Amino acid sequence: MADVFGKALLDYQKGQYTEDIKTFSSLDEEDVIPVPYLFRRFNEMPKIEQKALQLARGKVLDIGAGAGSHSLYLQEKGFDVTALDNSEGSIEVCKERGIKTTVLNNILDYGDTRFDTLLLLMNGIGLAGKLKYLSQFLKHLASLLMPNGQVLLDSSDIIYMFEQDEDGGYWILDDGNYYGEVTFKMKYKELESEVFDWVYLDFSTLQNACESNGFNCELVLSGEHYDYLAKLTLKK
Fold first, then answer.
1. Nearest residue to 127 via CA among 141, 145, 142, 148
2. Helix axis angle, 69-76 to 47-55, nearest 10°
3. SS3 for 145-168, per residue?
4. Is 59 helix (H, G, I), strand (E, B) or coil?
5. What is the CATH classification number for the domain harbouring 218?
6. CA–CA gap between residue 166 and residue 105 (Å, rounded)
7. Is 160 within a domain?
8. 5 lies in a domain?
9. How many structural domains are present in the chain?
């Protein structure tokens, strides 16, 4: 699969930024991911991300690290942090930005070490792909945690993207699929990704899945736009 994300990050890192990443999803026609935003400093991050970084403790795994902005902040604060991404370009950028420990791998294929904190920011739980794979994904996260470890993740309830009727209900196509399941494709310059699955979780759906898979799930912070930060800990 073309490393669309990695190519965009490398261009920016090398001072060759000329355009953003275009995304095409099953929800809307077209959107963009502004590449400079992926290199943001702590004071430019949304409150949810700032809070998650403040709650991080111990040995940290930054899953889907991207340009490494979260890892970099934690490393500067003295944390032992590992930046993991399955994009070669992303990992190269993380290294160039000075992140000491990086792993090029898919999170589901990684199981080498246990951590005190797993970070899944910028809707990282979306990596589960579909609701039916969420249990498997959560079980894998559990296998990467120290006994008193925590998972810090943010997501969004995308119900607001559906039409509302007069009595407050939403028009959702009842095709047997969870409404938070989306397919995406990304384009950058001449590169185009394959179509991939992503899932946005409303909090109660996440909570129910956690309950079934041995996790406590706590709502830490609600954002301004149907987004939230959750903390998952293993049940004793």
1. 141
2. 40
3. EEEEEEEEEEEECHHHHCCECCCC
4. strand
5. 3.40.50.150
6. 47
7. yes
8. no
9. 1
For 14-59, what is each residue's pLDDT tens digit? 999 999 999 999 887 789 999 999 999 999 999 999 999 999 999 9
The token pair at 149 is: 């470890």
Please provide the size of the chain in residues: 236
Residue-range definition of the domain harbouring residue 155: 46-183+201-234
pLDDT digits (tens, 9 = 90+) for 63-102: 999 999 999 999 999 999 999 999 999 999 999 999 999 9
Q: Is residue 15 part of a domain?
A: no
d(CA 173, CA 54): 39
Whole-prediction pTM: 0.93
Measure Cα distances from 41 to 68, 70, 114, 125, 229 in Å.
Answer: 10, 8, 27, 22, 19
Q: Is residue 88 part of a domain?
A: yes
Phi, psi of 166 (to 5 degrees): -65, -35
Query: Which residues, at least 6 apart from 97, have a Cβ–Cβ distance to it below 8 Å?
Result: 13, 67, 68, 72
